[in-house]
Design brief:
Blueprint: H1 2-15, H2 19-29, H3 49-52, E1 56-59, E2 62-67, E3 89-91, E4 114-116, E5 138-140, E6 147-148, E7 162-164, E8 169-173, E9 186-188, E10 193-196, E11 210-212, E12 217-218, E13 233-235, E14 242-243, E15 257-259, E16 264-267, E17 281-283, E18 288-289, E19 305-307, E20 314-316, E21 329-331, E22 336-340, E23 353-355, E24 360-362
Length: about 375
């Protein structure tokens, strides 16, 4: 009987939030401009914050999660009760917050692990104080109006696994200090105005599997990413990358997507790409690639989308291309390809798009095209 009473008492202790944190949340709620917010109507002194309040979760009697997504709150981030240092998860994505990042008290949240401030109207630079969030694992600032450079102090967030600043107004180079974040698995810095070369230090991120740097102004130097054996997705399209495709990229044997379109890449397609047996998306269009398509291309048996348009590729279309039965889209227009279209193309029963215009092809169109179910 006594044992059962002790267990019940402990369970109740875990359930209820501390009065200090609940009072702090109510005090900040009083500062909101839209007091009639229906989603936050549950925040009442007479109810339990842990079990009854919208967007709040607790552990050991402390609030550890605040999720008021899409609550249409009009306030600054300074209005949130971050001074107690016990919140470890804050998710207010798409909640119509108009503020600057300097309004966010980074120094007062030493235990926060998850921070999602995406899809707002947050502006200003990323303050160097963000380096104080040394327990942070997840940081999402995408789709805001954040400007300036990425501070080097970000290297102090040594536990960081996911970093997203996609679709902002960031400029300047990618700091080499990001290469110190050894636990990083996803890095998304696309759709900004970043420039300079891709730092070689990114090659130290052995756990990195997703790298999105598209739609920036990166270049003109080459990139050294061939050591990242866990890579799945490489997105570098719409930059100013120049030089040849490094043959070392053939070491990325777990790669699913390689997107390098719309750059200034020159030279031939390296034969080592044939090592990428898991590759499904290969986009190399709108570059200055020359020479023939290498025969090891035929090893890409998982390939679904092949886009090589608007280059200076020459030679014949590989006969063995028809052995890649899962191909759904083949784009090779605006090149210098010659010869006849191989009959093996008729084996591509999943093909939906085929664009070979503006080449030097000869001969008749294979009759099998009329029987193919795709949208050719």
């Amino acid at each position: 009987m006594n044992l059962q009473w002790i267990v019940l008492f402990t369970w109740k202790k875990v359930t209820f939030a501390s009065g200090e944190e609940a009072t702090a949340l109510l005090k900040r709620k009083a500062n909101f401009k839209n007091q009639n917010n229906s989603l936050l109507a549950s925040w009442k002194p007479s109810s339990d914050a842990c079990s009854d309040w919208y967007g709040v979760q607790c552990t050991n009697g402390r609030i550890n999660r605040l999720n008021i997504t899409n609550a249409s709150v009009f306030a600054t981030l300074y209005d949130f009760p971050c001074t107690n240092g016990r919140i470890n998860r804050l998710n207010i994505t798409n909640a119509s917050v108009f503020a600057t990042l300097y309004d966010f008290p980074f120094s007062s949240l030493p235990f926060i692990e998850y921070l999602n401030l995406s899809m707002h109207n947050l502006s200003s630079n990323i303050p160097p104080e963000i380096g104080n969030l040394t327990n942070l694992v997840y940081l999402d600032l995408k789709m805001n109006q954040i400007s300036g450079t990425i501070p080097s102090q970000i290297s102090s967030i040594v536990k960081l696994q996911i970093l997203r600043t996609f679709d902002n107004h960031l400029n300047g180079p990618i700091p080499r200090e990001i290469g110190y974040l050894r636990f990083l698995t996803k890095l998304s810095l696309g759709r900004n105005f970043l420039n300079g070369s891709i730092p070689a230090s990114l090659g130290n991120l052995n756990d990195l599997s997703y790298l999105y740097l598209n739609e920036n102004q990166l270049g003109p130097n080459s990139y050294e990413l061939g050591n990242l054996k866990n890579f799945n997705h490489l997105e570098l399209s719409d930059n100013q990358l120049s030089g040849p495709i490094p043959s070392e990229l053939g070491n990325l044997k777990n790669l699913n997507d390689m997107l390098l379109s719309n750059n200034e890449i020159i030279g031939s397609i390296p034969s080592s790409i044939g090592n990428l047996r898991n590759l499904q998306y290969l986009f190399l269009g709108d570059n200055n690639l020359t020479e023939e398509i290498p025969s090891p291309f035929c090893n890409l048996t998982s390939l679904k989308f092949l886009h090589l348009s608007r280059n200076n590729l020459k030679g014949k279309i590989l006969q063995c291309l028809g052995n890649i039965r899962g191909l759904q889209s083949v784009m090779m227009s605006h090149n210098n390809l010659s010869g006849e279209l191989p009959l093996s193309i008729c084996n591509l029963t999943s093909l939906q798009s085929l664009d070979l215009c503006r080449n030097n092809l000869i001969g008749a169109i294979p009759q099998c095209f009329g029987n193919m179910s795709g949208h050719l």
